[in-house]
Amino acid sequence: MSTPTPGKPDADAFLTLVSDYHIGVYGRVEVVRARLLPGVRGTDPAVLEALRAWGGQAFVDGAHHEPEIVLVRPAGPQRDRWPLYIAMFLVTLVTTMAAGAFLQGIDPFATDYMLNGWLPVPTRFSPGGLMQGGAFAFPFLGILLCHESGHYFAARRHRIPVSPPFFIPFPPWFSIVGTLGAFIRIKGPTVRRSELLDVASAGPIASFLLSIPVLIWGLALSHPVVGPVSAATPFLVPFGQEGVIRIGDGPLLHVLGMLFFPDSFGSGPILLHPIAFAGWLGLFVTALNLMPLGQLDGGHILYCLWAQPGQVRAARVFLIALVPLGFFWWGWWFWGGGAVLVNRGRLQHPPVLLPNVPLDARRRLVAWLAILAFFLTFVPIPLSV
Q1: Of 152, 226, 295, 323, which has the most beta carbons under 10 Å away?
Q2: How far is residue 69 CA from its own chain's centroid?
């Protein structure tokens, strides 16, 4: 028997067990796909010995007459630029703290001058004013970090190459939150739907569970004010010196609003404390990620639950529903179109390597709970000036 070549399975061993095999590289992962000969099972001693010679993860799809084996292992060194990720998080912390200060009518940069009428020019810096924005920034970034960390650690648990969370800062003068969010990058293929579901659902579940106590804490610090109110946007958030933004509610927040303000909810606006706004944003981000489109978490989850036909139908129905909603908040057109563009114009979710391996009962329950979380947190009209 020949010595296994680095980066390839033992050819002599596999030629006696498989009808064919193919070696490919996906991102940072090397993958071998092989079809076992009729009568050969993935649990046979000869098969197990050949898999041990590979030195990576082995997955068997035994649903067919000739079971398929997928072998996975890193294709090279796995290095991440941690200083860059940490620096981007710290910059985002500053921009979100500044946005939180603006929510309280404080400008920590004393922006008294606009170049060409639109470009802000800071004139001095107030560390104390910036710290005032921590009441919003700390819980909000904590929710985002918890969401992305859920994805990150679930991927690491399944030995899927993944980047650390990458935060995107945004100038607080042009954003009510001071960031465009965060993301992780999967650097290798997903073999089974069960692994994809674990990774996709971990983020929304984590942010959902953390956003609720943050929101409850913030609602306890919020209070009703006098003024006109809309049933679709019963909350207010101050922005800048004199501006105000009306905030919508979904089913979960509507129930909480009635519980916290039984005498005034619906008859007058509720001024949200920055902590409550951070909790609201956490639920809103959870709903955005659970939209059943493309490479969003919701698209992954529906593909894992229903495979491609059901996932594509759900994506079509949701996109059609976003068309009229966009007339009330144009952001739905932006997010829906962006999700489709990221998936290169396709509604169909790309398949995993072994799509025929079904989900177990526990994971199917997790998928349905994630769908329930989407309907509880979805806000038809999120913002109104």
Answers
A1: 152
A2: 30
Q: What is the pLDDT of residues 162-185, one digit of tens each?
A: 999 999 999 988 888 999 999 999
- Classify residue 292: in a domain, yes or no: no
Those residues whose C-beta lies under 8 Å from the C-beta of residue 107, and which sit 6 or more positions away, are 101, 129, 241
Domain count, the chain: 1
Give domain status of residue 33, yes or no: yes
Q: What pLDDT is stored for residue 319 in this prediction?
A: 92
For residue 36, give its domain range.
11-74
Distance CA 123, CA 104 (A): 19
Please state, in angstroms and rounded to a whole number, the distance separating the CA atoms of residues 147 and 166.
Answer: 12
* pTM, entire model: 0.88
Which candidate, 241, 226, 106, 222, places its Cα nearest to that of 249?
A: 222
Pair 214, 279: CB distance under 8 Å: yes
Residue 224 has pLDDT above 80, yes or no: yes
pLDDT at 72 over 50: yes
Q: What gap in Å lies between CA 153 and CA 146, rounded to an integer?
A: 10
Helix residue spans in 267-296 (DSSP H): 274-289
pLDDT band for 89, please (50, 70, 90 cuts).
very high
Q: Is residue 305 part of a domain?
A: no
